Amino acid sequence: MLHCATCSNVRVNSPLRMRTAQDICLLCLNENATQRNSHIVSKFISKGILGAKGSRKGFILDTENPERPKPDQDTAKEDFILCPSCESYLHVLETYIAENLHKRILHQKYNDDFTYRTNPGGLEYAICNNVNRLVARLFFTSIYWRCSITSTLPFVDFKLAEEELIRKELFRHKTQSISDLLIDNDDLTLNNKPLVIIRSKKGRDQTYNYLIDRIIDDGTYLLGLNEYLTMFGVNETLITQQFGSLANKGEKPLTVIIANGEMWNSFTQNVIKLYKHGVETKSKNKKSSN
Description:
Layout: E1 6-7, E2 38-39, H1 43-46, E3 58-61, E4 70-72, E5 77-78, H2 84-102, E6 114-118, E7 124-128, H3 133-149, H4 163-172, H5 178-182, H6 188-191, E8 195-200, E9 211-215, E10 221-225, E11 228-232, H7 238-241, E12 255-259, H8 261-289
Helix pairs in contact: 2-3, 3-4
């Protein structure tokens, strides 16, 4: 089992210029980016991966130096990428999803909020009856965007080709109040972008989970986010097509695939293969350049 907090693609060796409070916010492109400690992956998603408070520890596995994992006691945060107003907007999205999806799905107390079904292929899934799909799309899209714009590990090599397009779509809905977003459930542009969300129901121990980013050749962006595995495409991809109606495309209610222990373990094994492939590719590249 892969026991790590974060996993990374090949590290960028060239130093990046350190941002300052005088730089412009990367979301609104207007205000100064004075906000400190902006989480790249929302804290409510990533906090359990490092274990109990007082013994928090994880590792960054890097294909640049795979034999020496880097210990880490916190997940990625960065200063001076957002202004306070844009930080607040993202916090509005995070709070709604934390309260209405993350804390409720798989809890018997909130069964009325979800309709649980199994498709002909044996995939269990939950239809989120009371989760605003616009807010959900904005939230998960914001994480992809933040992973793309950050200069911190493990996401330094994760780059959305459509980063500016996604920024504009996020900014178009900027608000300081969730009520502004709950008025409407739709954004036709966002609706056409497939988004696969898989949630693990494997126990409470999250320390064997991971944060990982991958860009697949068919244009699929993949993020492993602790208890969630998500796949996103600006257009339909070969991978998202395989999930059919479970890929959250169109005007249907938000759907989350539920992964039991066996299914989640198979995902983890695939992550190990991805990591090993990155190490092997890096090794071959080094040999060919010598």
